[in-house]
Amino acid sequence: MATLESNPLFSQPTPSATRPRRRSRSGRWFFWLVMLAVLGGSAWFAVEPLKAWFAVDTQQRVITQRVTRGPLVVTVVEDGNVESAANVDVKCEVAGGSVILWIIPDGTHVTKGQKIVELDSSTITESISQQKIVLEKANAARIQVEKEFSAAKIAVQEYLEGTYVKEHQLLESQSKIALENLRSSENALQHTERMARKGYVTPLQLEAQRFAVERAKLDLDTAQTAITVLDKFTKAKMLEDLQSKRDSAEARWRSEQAACELEQQRLTRMTTQLEKCVIIAPQDGMVIYANESSSSRGSSSSGVKIEEGAAVRERQSIVRLPDLSQMQVKTLVHESKIDQVAIGQRAQIKLLDRLFQGQVRLVGNQPEPSSFFSSNVKEYAAYVRIEGEVEQVRPGQTAEVEILIADKRDVISVPVQAVVELGRHTYCWVRTPHGPERRPVVVGLSSSERIEIKDGLAEGDDVLLNPRAILVEAREEDDGAEPVDVNAKFGEQKESPQPAPKADAAKKTAGPPTFNFADLDKNGDKKLTVDELPERMAGSMDRLDTNSDGTVDATEFAAFRARMQSMKGKGPPQ
User: Fold this and answer.
1) Total-model pTM
2) What separation in angstroms does the CA of 55 have from each of 52, 142, 419, 420?
3) Lowest mean pLDDT across 126-135, 198-207, 233-242, 498-507
4) Which entry of 56, 235, 248, 548 is 20 to 30 Å from 567 by CA?
5) Neighbours of 537 (CB within 10 A)
6) Would you say domain 514-569 falls under CATH 1.10.238.10?
7) What is the DSSP string of 398-457?
8) Residue 109's beta-bridge partner residues?
9) How is domain 122-276 classified at the CATH fold level?
């Protein structure tokens, strides 16, 4: 039987066996150098191929996100101003315009029939006095011509029923007398002839009797001719003369009557104009001055300021009476987003600390006028009606409008920073075991944070959120340009092009006009007044004149130009 002492596991080692073998110092250093070389080579073989294949910037941290399906809400967010959807514009209806003598304070609540504006009526009052004199003269002329017309009508009737009949009867009487005288003369001639045959009458007496018969015939012919002349000529001539006088008098009477009516209408219009110098409220509401801005959003100055003493033109709006129960927000949408906005879309309006729901009721089809310094920015007006209770909502307040463009429930979407446009193509980078992989994608709608991916990615992919920061190829332009079919793109050449004149070419290549301080300083006083500024810059005088001394020096002008340049591409200043 073996003993514990004979078991090598429990045997006591000799002192020489328990002492460890001491390695040499040079051997340890050699071992560590070999290990460092192996590790370094492995790292080089692991990193350098990735850097060569994918140009990964190892100084940046790779950020990824898992691609999933889910809802995507696409909205357009813009600022706007609150206004009434049913404004009643009170306009100047005085012909030629007038001057405001008195106007009710802005913001006053008025009732229907209350006086709100009084215009200068001195010129109209003087014109009314002069017009009354002209009207009275026209009335006098009309009355005189009317009497002449009446007399001319009576003259025609008098001749037909009186003078002509009398003359005709007189000539008939003369004709009958002449006929009777002829018969008597013929009887006397017969008697004289019998007596002459018996010798009782001398030849001279017989000849005298024959002469009497001839004279009686002539008298009868004269009387009958006078009747014929009267019926055939004199009557027609007199009627033409009298009727022409009557018609002429009638024409003058109608002319004077029309002139009188015209003068009366002028007097009536002047009287109406005088009444329109006092303007009353057509409905209940709050008075808002209709100040006209000289630029859309590039200046806070006013082109027309409504105040006492201000001149207003005809048909110009003086005040507005908004219907405070129907309010809306007018917002300006950039041209790149306006096609997405449509009538009927839902919206949320944020007004101070209150939220309202709304609906798009109108979208403008023409861009809004822009200022001189933001002429390259095109914006379209969209009107969003505020729904629900609108108490304490006042016109002119600033609101933030968020219009719902689309509400998709089951789509693949990624953060917008994960999508990169290179040329005409769009790409995303997906993390794979072999490194980042570029994939072309088809994008859809996008919000301010996420963009829809229609094709190119699948659920479960890890998409890089910062490809431009870590991948050189994400910052390079796409060099895979496709060949261009010139005829398909630009059309076939139909005729030889004619060289354009140099002047026309210069006009085509000339950019928008630029202004510098020296060119605008016409009088050389090193200060600009509003008269020296171009018409398109005059509206920005209050923004140029920062020290409010009424003039603009070179420092103020340079500072303003710098502010405008910094705002370029960001929309007009708020």
Assistant:
1) 0.52
2) 6, 104, 18, 16
3) 498-507
4) 548
5) 24
6) yes
7) EEEEEEEEEEEEEEEEEEGGG-EEETTEEEEEEEETTEEEEEE-EEEEE-SSEEEEEES-
8) 286
9) Helix Hairpins (1.10.287)
